[in-house]
Amino acid sequence: MAKPINLPNGRSWKTQSAALAHFKDMLGRYDDNEVVEDRNDHDDLIALLERYDGVVTDQPSKIGAGVDEFFRKRNLFDGFSTPSFWARRTDGSETDFSYIWAVKGEPKSGAQEFYDACRASVNADLVAAKRNHFNTYGDATGRVPCELTGQLIGVGEAHLDHAYPTFGHLVVTFRAARGWQHEVPKGVLSPPADSQATTTFVDPAVSKAFAAFHHSAALLRIVRDKMNLSMAAGQRKPKVKQPVAI
């Protein structure tokens, strides 16, 4: 029976083989010692590394204090070498990890729930920020330029994009700062319940802490919704002409 693979950032594949092919193809697109600049690739690797930490709980966390960037590097063995993804942490330390093991293992229980709780903590603020951006910068018809194409678009066809860092990166960094890389303590997330649309943080202080961290670190921009997945990846640290303020 096919085993679907689901990552905390929302990426999913119907089979392990499809997920493995995705990361193998990704690894092949980079040269040795080249930094992963594509934001979609970077976000997928962040989510994959979180999955890895969820599987290998008897070893030090690969995420550690947080990941600054990924790059391809060759692992040297006796008489041969193999390419691999490496993570460079915010404290300057580096580590390799196996995307094959990360894909084949089981993801950490609650990883997606934690991601959802973080999203719930800032959803209202993001909606308000998008609305205020259009009210402030909209032309006579209420349109603003898409950051990718320059084309004027209305609020209904616009997507509020995390230009840098990605939302998944912010979530992982927040978890690392609290020492929750391997496991989220019991009682932090709301338990499943009838009519519960999404997981939330039980303690409002944690929700406020993530919101404050997100608002201070996130660089937001407006892009046409249909352009987000196909064009928004570009560079990992894109320039934003008219950032969306929170």
Automatic annotation (TrEMBL):
Gene3D superfamilies in alphabetical order: 3.10.450.40
Protein name, entry field: DUF3223 domain-containing protein
Lineage: Bacteria, Pseudomonadati, Pseudomonadota, Alphaproteobacteria, Sphingomonadales
